[in-house]
């Protein structure tokens, strides 16, 4: 075993899988940029206070953050999520609203690693600040739905709920507390611990002893204000108008305390029910104020890369693809011709690689086969003397000898035909 390996919950993403990650982000950017979103790149490191504002009753804050003192004795944290960073950025820079941004990149949480969950994990997401219109909620949800369609996923379910206004949510949380406390020791030990911190999170429990009490729990809709009800109704009408199927799930809650009104999750139909959330989001009106900014409504979502790609594997879509080389240059006359030819081909927009170390023709042709290139461009002693190259199709067809000066035009015409 090598002396150094990745830390628990971390891993290397090797080619060609790394190329699929890059394409994943590119597809996402294409979808959301078409709707007017622009990329924000927040720092990996933030003041710890940015994330403690997301709720001191959440596991993210209480036990999952990588936080430490930096060399300036400041308490900082590796970001566990990016919504709070986006809101901090808005409070700091005060851009014009509506501010529509998207992001991608790694986050860090000290969780128990499992399939589709790592301590360093990537997400893509969007956030919109400064608009309270329920039709914006519809747009945000629709963009997530459209992205999954663009990947080729078809077994995705959209779950929808509303947490209402803060005062109604507070009364609902108290009603849940009383309901679950009445269950006493019949609740699982884990849920009794969760209850003391955040009664809403008990609704997330998948443990069998908890299910009867979750099923009989009070309903959040009974605590909506008229305004919250109207907002939620408008979101549902908008989604139906766009033919986006959804299921209203009254027990859906989100893991962070800043959510209010609309919340939603995308579930992968091929994944185990305990770990089937591909991503989700909702409204977080109030978070910007908590970070020192003006009163600003906000909504967004974050989608997990790992679980989404697992769902793609399950459905047989969005495969990992090795980059397709146009040409592999085989140079057996010293290497200078290989260097010049690959440089010229790349400058003309044709992908090209070559052999090194003055290997034999046989060894370089083996490399050309392994490279997946469409053509081998061969320069031997005779070709070098004549100013020609041999073009050998690697997947069937006759090889030809042409003047070196015609190489780029020949390959361009062949690959585009």
Account of the protein in words:
With 417 residues, the chain is α+β, with helices and mostly antiparallel strands. The protein is built from 16 helices and 16 strands. Strands 1-5-6-11-10-9-7-8 form an 8-stranded mixed β-sheet, sandwiched between helices. A 5-stranded mixed β-sheet has the order 13-12-14-15-16, with helices on both faces. Helix 1 (17-33) packs antiparallel against helix 5 (134-151) and helix 5 runs parallel beside helix 10.
Secondary structure layout:
Blueprint: H1 17-33, E1 38-39, E2 45-47, H2 48-52, H3 59-64, E3 67-69, E4 75-78, H4 83-93, E5 99-108, E6 120-129, H5 134-151, E7 156-162, H6 166-183, H7 189-197, H8 199-202, H9 211-215, H10 226-241, E8 247-248, E9 260-268, E10 277-283, H11 287-290, E11 298-304, H12 305-315, E12 327-331, H13 336-347, E13 352-354, H14 361-371, E14 375-379, H15 381-386, E15 388-393, E16 400-403, H16 407-416
Parallel strand pairs: 1-5, 7-8, 12-13, 12-14
Antiparallel strand pairs: 2-4, 3-4, 5-6, 6-11, 7-9, 9-10, 10-11, 14-15, 15-16
């Amino acid at each position: 075993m090598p002396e150094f390996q990745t830390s628990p919950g971390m891993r290397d993403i090797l080619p060609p899988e790394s190329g699929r990650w890059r394409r994943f982000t590119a597809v996402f950017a294409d979808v959301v940029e078409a709707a007017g979103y622009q990329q924000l790149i927040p720092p990996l490191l933030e003041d710890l206070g940015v994330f403690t504002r997301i709720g001191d009753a959440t596991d993210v804050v209480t036990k999952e953050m990588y936080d430490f003192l930096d060399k300036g004795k400041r308490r900082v944290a590796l970001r566990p999520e990016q919504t709070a960073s986006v809101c901090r950025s808005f409070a700091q820079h005060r851009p014009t609203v509506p501010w529509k941004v998207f992001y991608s990149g790694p986050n860090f949480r000290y969780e128990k690693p499992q399939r589709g969950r790592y301590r360093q994990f990537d997400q893509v997401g969007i956030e919109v600040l400064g608009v309270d219109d329920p039709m914006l909620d519809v747009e945000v949800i629709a963009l997530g739905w459209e992205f999954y369609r663009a990947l080729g996923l078809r077994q995705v379910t959209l779950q929808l709920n509303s947490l209402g206004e803060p005062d109604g949510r507070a009364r609902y949380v108290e009603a849940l507390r009383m309901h679950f406390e009445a269950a006493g020791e019949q609740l699982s030990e884990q849920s009794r611990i969760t209850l003391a911190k955040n009664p809403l999170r008990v609704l997330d429990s998948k443990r069998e002893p908890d299910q009867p009490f979750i099923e009989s729990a009070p309903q959040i809709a009974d605590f909506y204000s008229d305004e919250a009800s109207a907002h939620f109704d408008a979101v549902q009408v908008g989604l139906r108008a766009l033919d986006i199927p959804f299921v209203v799930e009254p027990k859906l809650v989100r893991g962070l305390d800043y959510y209010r009104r609309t919340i939603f999750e995308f579930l992968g139909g091929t994944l185990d029910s305990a770990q089937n959330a591909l991503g989700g989001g909702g409204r977080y009106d109030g978070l910007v104020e908590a970070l020192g900014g003006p009163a600003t409504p906000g909504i967004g979502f974050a989608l997990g890369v790992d679980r989404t790609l697992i769902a793609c594997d399950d459905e047989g879509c969005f495969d990992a693809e090795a980059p397709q080389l146009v040409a592999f240059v085989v140079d057996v006359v010293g290497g200078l011709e290989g260097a010049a030819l690959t440089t010229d081909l790349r400058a003309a927009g044709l992908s090209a690689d070559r052999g090194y170390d003055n290997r034999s023709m046989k060894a370089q042709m083996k490399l050309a086969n392994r490279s997946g290139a469409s053509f081998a461009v061969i320069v031997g002693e005779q070709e070098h003397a004549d100013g020609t190259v041999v073009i050998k199709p690697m997947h069937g067809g006759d090889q030809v000898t042409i003047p070196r000066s015609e190489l780029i035009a020949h390959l361009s015409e062949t690959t585009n035909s």
